[in-house]
Amino acid sequence: MTSAFPYLLLPHVWASRNRLRRREHGDTLRGLLFGAVGILVCGALFWGAYWLTSQLSAYEEFGEYLLRLGLSWLFLSFLAFLAFSGIVTALSTFFLSDDLRLLMTSPIAARRLFAARFTRTLGSASWMVVIFMAPVLGGVGVGSCAPPAFYLTAAATSVPFAIIPVAIGAACTLLVVNVFPARRARDLLMLMGLVFAVGIVLVLRFIQPERLLRVESLPDITDFFATLQSPITPLLPSFWAGEALFAGLHGSVDWLHQAALWTTAGAFVVSLSWAHERWHFAGYSRSQEAPKTRFARFAALDLLAATLPLSSVRRQLLVKDVKIFLRDVSQWVQLLPLVALVLLYLYNFRVLDLERLPFVAGFVKNVYAFVNLGMAGFVMATVAVRFVFPAVSAEGASFWIIRTSPISMQDFLWSKFWTAVVPVLVFTEVLTVAANELLGTDPFLKIVAAGGIFFMTFALVGLATGLGARYPRFGADATQAAGSYGGVMFMILAVLLIIVTIALLGWPSSLYMMSMTGQHRWRLTPERQLLIAACFSAVIAICLTTWWIAMRSGVRALEAMRE
Amino acid sequence: MIAINDLAKTYGRFTAVDGISLHVEPGEIHGFLGPNGAGKTTTLRMIAGLLKPTSGRILVNNHDMETDPEAAKLSLGFIPDRPYIYDKLTAGEFLTFHAGLYGLSNGSVQGRVHEMLDLFELRPWEHELIESFSHGMKQRLVMSSAFFHRPQAVAVDEPMVGLDPRGARLIKDVFRHMSERGVAILMSTHTLEVAQEMCHRVSIIQKGRIIAQGTVDEVKQLAGGATDEHLTSVFLKLTGGSGLQEIDEI
Fold first, then answer.
1. How many domains does chain A have?
2. The complex's ipTM?
3. Are residues B101 and B38 in the same domain?
4. What would the pLDDT profile of A228-280 be if each residue is shown by its tens digit?
5. Of the partner residues B76, B86, B100, the one whose CB lies closest to the CB of residue A315
6. Which residues form the domain of B110?
7. Contacts of residue B52 in chain A, CB cutoff 8 Å?
8. Cβ-contact A10, A120 below 8 angstroms
9. Which residues of A touch B131 (CB under 8 A)?
10. Do A79 and A165 touch, CB atoms closer than 8 A?
11. Contacts of A184 in chain B (CB under 8 A)
12. Pair (B104, B143) in one structural domain
């Protein structure tokens, strides 16, 4: 018999320890470099939160009110993310993970297994939120001159706050796995993806953000704030967490909301443990069933591929990758929430009524063109880390087929790149152009944004492909690969690239736009024209260099695998 | 033809393969025998281009695996011990994909796919996803891909693992047939009966070094045994009989 449940976590702890011990050439340098970048990003989050809180402090009660509201909104966003992350992670840790075959045949009490798997689910689903939340709350604390007890309150609030949505997500997974008559993990994920997407749609429609800009349509200012307040229902843990932290900022303890968080988290864990004991084995058993597979042949894809001007090697690699992607519902279903979010994003641009701000409407529109570019960049980075970065890892144990074939690693990796870059480019260009069209941005900025996103696509997809080849996780699924060291590194570099690109495009564009006002001091002198050209050229150079270096590095890493 | 010359592979201070040389002529089935951890799989993985040798040279059909890997791989078929293949492709699609990797044109591919599926008795599953296949079926599919592009040499690691008697018989027949057609086959195996029955020559490797090489009869004589002695006892004599010792200890 096994001892306490942490024993079951030991393999993961040992595996992590061994990975750390197995130092390779350049590990220290990489660690220092990317550690520094990570600290920079966290520092930026900290500073942003600090600055905002300091600004709000200047408005006394109104500022405090907005800060309180902001905390609840912050937790509301994390709540949705954690719930979805909990669903996806629980499916893997409770039902699909390979080591379950060993654990389920071992004499382990169901409760211990549950405790171990839930701890793992909680860790995997929430680490990213913790990393982003810590500097933000730190910034809020420093900006508000909060007492030291605030940080203890923050830690005490974050733990139950993370447990609740992850437990709900795990419960959803348990329920659906048992409701479906046969093993259909992919169908399950599809359903969950749709539920998440619909949930997002409903929440965002419920908020009706466009109303915020129609202040004059509201009877009075109270209604205006009621609009802001509306999605923050006191029944949600995000509200409790926001309130508990707000109290912590003033040195007091909000026992009511802390108790609500802890008792709810405890109740969820106990209930889930009971449900796990009752239904997990049945669900796991079903997940092992291998029904006769139904799948699409995609004959049209073969015909289409045959018309493409590609070598037979690249054509077959393309067809193979696309078919595997389309047949694995757990892969493409993750695009659904993304599509829902993008549609909402575009919808919001359509309903934004900036003409109600007569003196600044033009300015805001043009600023939004760059906000939109940044958003498109971040969406692209998310798509790339989830779908492009794991492309090499997805070969998994079958990679020997490629490596023993008479094709070069260069051909292989470039095939991965071109397979990814075309859909990503179409997606981001449509997103950028449509958003700017709906917004009514200046034509010059439309062209700059479309050009910027074009080069950014090559840089980000190249970076994801190259780093995916440099840091593959052949034993991991796509989600795990995306969350690996290489995936995090990609996200950090991608964010930096997006920021640099927007800065280099934004400044000369604003100069150009100001010159259009006709004022003498903003006229485009030859020096300014040169600067504008230099900035735009720098963007192109940075993007192309990133693309080329990343791909080259990826090819070399694949070639070095023989070592 | 497969020719390896003074091949070595080290991992830090550990030497997995220590300067081995062997030559597999066209039409020859060469058995590669040795206890667990002797270096068989490492050698085969180097021949297949999966591992880079620390030193030494590998020629496949006179193409150097180091300097001309694509030509070498084009004339080689490799069958690994564990048949990991793309679960979400059908058997037919997998072979078509394989054909593309080896630069085979579309016109003749479908016929060849059917031919290989028929040969390895997988035709009824041509349009089924590989994820629904048993281990033995996957193994046969991998073999059909290894022979698909008509290689002049084949490196195969433990071909009989997971095969039922009918499957094992089929594989033996295919190997013999390919050998008669001039294909050089280097086959690592633990099943000494298979080596005795099928191989023209064998090499016995231990601790990364070849300790005996020749026809089965020559190897028996090297071990000081009679030619009618079973290869198993020769193997145990040459490799120290550690397997039997372990059984006694249990």
1. 3
2. 0.74
3. no
4. 555 567 788 888 898 898 888 888 888 999 999 999 999 999 999 999 988 88
5. B100
6. 84-149
7. 562-563
8. no
9. 290, 293
10. yes
11. none
12. yes
